[in-house]
User: Fold this.
Amino acid sequence: MPGDEKAVAVIEDTAVDVNDLPEYIREFNVILNKYNLYSVHYAHAGSGELHLRPIINLKTEEGNRLFRSIAEEISALVKKYNGSLSGEHGDGRLRGKFIRQMIGEKNYTLLKQIKQTWDPGNIFNPNKIVDTPPMNTMLRYKPGQQTPVFKTIFRFYNQDILQHAEQCNGSGDCRKTHLAGGTMCPSFMATRNEKDTTRARANILREFLTNSEKINRFDHNEIYEVMELCLSCKGCKSECPSNVDVAKLKAEFLQHYYDANGVPFRAKLIANFTKSARLGALMPSLYNFAVKNSLTGTFIKRLSGFAVKRSMPELYKTTLRKWYRKTKNNNLQSKKPIVYLFCDEFTNYNDTETGIKAISLLERLGYEIIIPEHIESGRTWLSKGLIRKAKSIAERNIAMLSPFITAETPLVGIEPSAIFTFRDEYPDLADDKLLEKAKYLAANSFTIEEFIATEIKKGKLPKELFTRERKHIKLHGHCQQKSLTGTESTVQMLSFRKLFCRNDSFRMLWHGRFFWLRKRALRLINEDWRNGVIPSGKRCGRRGNYCCPRNQLPAPDKRWHW
Assistant:
């Protein structure tokens, strides 16, 4: 929920006989109505249990009182139906106060005797189950506690950054292993450390934004250490039950942290990828020789802070824009439908061959391809938390592209993380005066596979245009693509002529062209390889790398020891 009111876990674990459940729920809601409250209802009705979480603002004195009053009245209701106050989970401090009421004085005395016998020093989990403090104490917030107004670069709709972090309800879905499927949370899959969970990142931000005594509450090394291994894959945005967008939280945090501590050289180097690639593109052969040569390449990596054993991305012999200007058809009087292609910074300099093939494909399908005037996507700046610069890039692109991007003439992109900036970040970064344009641009920006799949559904692409050759295809979905839209459009496109398409949507995505080129990351990559998070398979592509081209990920070497 966007504001301070949250679905509170206070009496969400009650269970009664399944035959009594309808009447129990009726009386439960009567109690809530008395306090002008409503509740989330979900889970195991077939077993006589519903998870019931009333919506309460625990930051207020009234909310604190309601928290206790609701617990007292519902515990009496559960007792009336001979139910359980903790039907699925535990009691702890929250429900410990009501154990005497639920099981009777005699049984409660036995519990105390057992505790005193086995733990006379009261060392293990003190004040849990027996001798618990009042259940509306020891909460995260003191009643009436005030927090400052946070001025952020990102727009947090109907909430501030603290309230967004507070959406995390601690359910721990981010602690799943690779066996559970999905993307979230790749760094935890590698380390198995609570510090590297989505939950931990939300909690550390919530703690310091609430209780810090600094003027800049983001200025804490503890937050930086916990945020460091977030890959910004955005899996949490779709897979977290509360949809906590840690990638957005991390980027906002880093900007304010850098304001107090300065921007590291390595972060500047990565963020300025487009500038360095543009310079290298003047003499791509010399650049490629320098980064591939063991002597100069090692020097560059050490100077830049990149892991020596990682390969540096090479530049293509020309840029996509140069190729396009040289080969484009200047006859724009044709009646072909127009598609505007976003020439992202990665396809323009590194994966130019992919861009050439994409343009050729769209032209063969009957479209007029135009690369409009625009600047870089801003993805590298976002990945390093330099979001003021990303904001200026977003607003320039919105102004440059809005005049001619419509539902009839959409913007199509090849690199998912670049085109998704229009869909995900631009509406959150744009000034209010550009917000509607940003939203319209976002609604008409598509990955190339989304565009083709949509055209297929509309019947605009006859099957005769495609080969009848059948192939077995392994698909590795981009992490942000899976988080924001899914890979269904890719599967539909590849399956148009009933090709065999196998969707190997691997969880572990060490993404970012330079982002994880460090020794510590290699340890985690090796760990994920051993755990099966990164699948085994044949090398692909001219660089001999695994996974998607954007990753630049060489296979872990068993000889590496850290």
Observations:
- The chain has a mean pLDDT of 85.
- DSSP finds 26 helices and nine strands in the chain.
- The beta strands are 6-7, 39-42, 51-56, 338-342, 368-370, 411-413, 445-447, 472-475, 500-503.
